Amino acid sequence: MSPTGQTRLAAVIGDPVRHSLSPTLMNAAFGATGLDWSYVALEVAAMQLPDALAGVRALGISGLSVTMPHKESAAACCDRLSPTAERLGAVNCIVNNGGVLTGHNTDGDGFIRSLRHGFAFEPANKRCVVIGAGGAARSIVLALADAGASEIVVVNRTLGRAERTAALAGDRGEVVALDGAHSDLVDADLIVNATSIGMGEPAASDVPFDASVLHDGQTLVDIVYKPLETPLLATARLRGVSVANGVAMLAHQAAVQFELWTGVDAPIDVMLASVADQLG
Ligand SMILES: NC(=O)c1ccc[n+]([C@@H]2O[C@H](COP(=O)([O-])OP(=O)(O)OC[C@H]3O[C@@H](n4cnc5c(N)ncnc54)[C@H](OP(=O)(O)O)[C@@H]3O)[C@@H](O)[C@H]2O)c1
Questions:
Q1: pLDDT reported for residue 57
Q2: What range does the domain containing 235 cover?
Q3: 134 lines ligand 1 (CB under 6 A)
Q4: Ligand 1: does its nearest atom lie under 6 Å from the Cβ of 221?
Q5: Mean pLDDT score of the chain
Q6: What are the catalytic residues?
Q7: Which of 196, 229, 257 to mutate to test the pocket of ligand 1 (most atoms within 8 A of CB)?
Q8: Proportion of the chain above pLDDT 70, given as a percent
């Protein structure tokens, strides 16, 4: 649909942002639902974020996706935060309601939706190990806790960061060093790689842990999506583990954003296909 005088605008802000998959993904979703919306990528330098958000209010841009390096500073600039964004101190989605900007964080919901949709995996009462303690890991740990996981073990290179991340899960969160995590990995129902290890053009040795401890009956999600199959996923798949890369989480977190802006159910199959197409 070509833009008209009625077209509502949404955008992703970040720096860099020109590589973003979101414009093609979101415009495919608007097209499939017949909504008169359009979505663009806007490069915003870190120091210009407050001006950019003032511009969002002034121009009446209806929805924003927020990516690096703005996720934490955007949380400080919003007028309101969802409970999840407040607990994480980070925002990846903003809804502009008449100039009032509400910050949300959809990564955790997107992750849980991807588990349910892709594997019919229900986190309640499950033992989970999350490798990593950055922004994505924090969203996932909080979402697993909110979804009722019985135990969430956080393993990360930097221990202090692991402790702050595990604290999001309250008394169900625990920090374990990688060299002491063998039995947690063997006993886990769900293992998540939320580090950037395996991204880009990885060597076979670029794995966050030795996947030969994994076994049939377990589920492993590596949230990296470039490449589509990391060395960790390849080994786990050969061992009979149910595996997924980060494509589904990416599409589902975008679907949650779409729904927050428009109030319309997201066309998730179209969104999954768009991400898969773009990543070849
Ligand atoms: N599929 C999706 O929808 C989705 C969404 C968000 C992010 N992601 C992907 O998730 C990954 C993490 O993103 P993020 O935003 O959480 O990044 P981040 O905040 O920078 O965190 C990076 C994490 O990776 C760990 N790490 C990085 N290099 C490492 C190494 N050489 N050895 C051990 N640990 C290492 C860091 O450990 P330290 O704390 O010790 O530094 C930290 O836990 C990225 O690949 C990103 O593309 C995917």
A1: 97
A2: 108-245
A3: yes
A4: no
A5: 97
A6: 71
A7: 196
A8: 100
Question: Do residues 213 and 132 share a domain?
Answer: yes
In the structure encoding, which two tokens stand for residue 121, read together? 């995996």
Predicted TM-score of the model (pTM): 0.97
Strands 100-104 and 127-131: unpaired
What mean pLDDT is predicted for residues 190-219? Answer: 96
Distances (CA, A) of 176 to 46, 145, 230, 233: 34, 17, 23, 22
Cβ of 222 less than 6 Å from ligand 1 = no
253 in contact with ligand 1, CB cutoff 6 A:
yes
The confidence score (pLDDT) of residue 1 equals 76
Residue 91 to residue 42: CA distance in whole angstroms: 17
Cα dihedral across residues 228, 13, 135, 253: positive or negative: negative
Q: Does 1 map to a domain?
A: no
The DSSP code for 132 is -
**Which residue, by CA, sits nearest to atom 45 of ligand 1?**
196
224: pLDDT strictly greater than 80: yes
Q: How far is CA 103 from CA 89, 97, 187, in A?
A: 10, 11, 37
**Long-range contacts from 157-164, C-beta under 8 angstroms, 24+ separation:** 157/195, 158/133, 161/133, 161/134, 162/133, 164/133, 164/138
Residue 62 belongs to domain with CATH number: 3.40.50.10860
Q: Which two tokens stand for residue 139?
A: 């969203």
Structure confidence by residue, pLDDT tens digits, 25-80: 999 999 999 999 999 999 999 999 999 999 999 999 999 999 999 999 999 999 99
In a domain, 3, yes or no: no
CATH code for the domain of 215: 3.40.50.720
Pocket test of ligand 1: the residue of 105, 195, 210, 223 to mutate, having most ligand atoms within 8 Å of its CB, is 195
Contacts of 217 (CB under 8 A, 6+ apart): 240
* Structural domains counted in the chain: 2
Q: Are residues 221 and 261 in the same domain?
A: no
